[in-house]
Amino acid sequence: MAKIETPRPVRGTQDMLGGTPEAFQERFAHVIATFDRVRRLYGFNRVEVPVFEATAVFARSLGESTDVVSKEMYTFEDRGGDSITLRPEFTAGICRAYITEGWQQYAPLKVATHGPLFRYERPQKGRFRQFHQLDAEIIGAGEPGADVELLVLGDQLLRELGIEGVTLTLNTLGDAQSRDAWRAALIAHFEAHRDQLSEESIDRLARNPLRILDSKDPRDRPVADSAPGIDAYLTDEARAFFEKVTAGLDAAGVAWERNARLVRGLDYYRHTAFEFVTDRLGAQGTVLGGGRYDGLIENLGGPATPAVGWAAGIERLAMLVDMPERASIDVAVIPMGEAAEAVAIGIIADLRRAGIVADMGYRGNMKKRMQRANAQGSRMAIIIGDDELAQGEVTVRDLTDGTQQRCKIEALGDFPLAGKASFVESLLRGFDPSKAIAN
RNA sequence: GCGAUCGUAGCUCAGUCGGUUAGAGCGCUGGUUUGUGGUACCAGAGGUCGUGGGUUCGGAUCCCAUCGGUCGCCCCA
């Protein structure tokens, strides 16, 4: 008989198990929990949007032409023949919902979400094909105050996660007029120094000239660094907008650095562009990034609507947060024999109902069960054997120092372990022995 | 799409100028201790050396191909 071959996990996906020494799942969960708590402080409501959308949602928002749309999305035909795409980002889907669900009535809308995203890319450090992001958006607010609020939110999130060594880099792309003028000047500059550019950047010049500015190729750096900055091309309005954003950050006490080379490829980006970056993640330094996308909702067929938002990679943040404490249990219940097990089921049910973290093995002799209790980090063991049972008692053992004592089952709720009354009291407060005995 | 690098036990890895039965630590199972863990000691199970082909008397080791992991380039919504 042929050996059954186990299907391999799909490239770029990951499995996370809680309770392991790496505690990656715990760190992942901690990032989400922190985000959920902090976003509430800023009045962002949770929004749920589908994991897949009509392909047009992303194709229009990203611009049909790009590599991103043609090569890097998970697109398939469903049984009805419709082209469907697994979401590669949150923003487009949220904007689609804003239009189709009539959420204009709630504008300005402050929403947050998190969940899986899918991109068909080559996996590497901090890049997966199914990955997860946190996302925060403000739709229907054209004021710089929205940009500031979002940035302060991002800053507080990173602080509360305890992530060190991240800097906020900030730039403005100006309004449409500023942006077009700057872009033209950049193209002129790069054309003039075409012979000094790398082959890749010569290609970029035709495709996406702004990207030459953040090229990693050392051959490009001199030309990129001497390229004109946007400041000379900013309209008065655009300059005033950026000044209000930076003034707001200063007022909120958020540190930032100007990065005049920070750009966005797509045309609908306006004004603020930002990235919180670190050098601790290899080639993927951006931990949280976003900007203002005033043109996007129109691209999707909606009314002209200003909006700004950011997204942050949960895996990347999880790699940077400190190891959380491993979950441990308070009490291990250890019955010896069937009669004891029946009583133990009652006791452990009441412990758990009282909010005490308790566990009981399905099998094993006493030694096995004690070993397991220890491996789980249990602070206490409640041992129920024939001797105890005969007298309506249990043995309560403190696993931190090995002391133990007998106790009537009825008295378990206020069992006084010598020298540790308060500990035991808090542990077993609320325990109802009458229910345990009833069982 | 391109490049580099690595695939040996459940995990982390040693072993390669080609040479008998492929090793360690951790984990797992059992025992020292038929009702007492965390330390210690003893024993045991577990491996088509990623896969396929080639060179050779002989391949975990050398060559080719292929699949997979990792890291980087491209791209980055």
TrEMBL record:
It comes from Sphingobium ummariense RL-3. GO terms for biological process: histidyl-tRNA aminoacylation. It is an enzyme of class 6 (ligase). This is Histidine--tRNA ligase. Its EC number is 6.1.1.21. CDD domains: HisRS-like_core, HisRS_anticodon. Homodimer. It catalyses: tRNA(His) + L-histidine + ATP = L-histidyl-tRNA(His) + AMP + diphosphate + H(+). GO terms for cellular component: cytoplasm. GO terms for molecular function: ATP binding; histidine-tRNA ligase activity. It is found in: Cytoplasm. The keyword Aminoacyl-tRNA synthetase applies. L-histidine binds at residues 89-91, 119, 133, 137, 264, 268-269. The gene is hisS. The keyword Acyltransferase does not apply. It comes from the Bacteria. Residues 31-335 form the Aminoacyl-transfer RNA synthetases class-II family profile domain. InterPro entries: aa-tRNA-synth_II, aa-tRNA-synth_II/BPL/LPL, Anticodon-bd, Anticodon-bd_dom_sf, His-tRNA-ligase, HisRS-like_core, HisRS/HisZ, HisRS_anticodon. Its main location: cytoplasm. Keywords: Aminoacyl-tRNA synthetase, ATP-binding, Cytoplasm, Ligase, Nucleotide-binding, Protein biosynthesis.
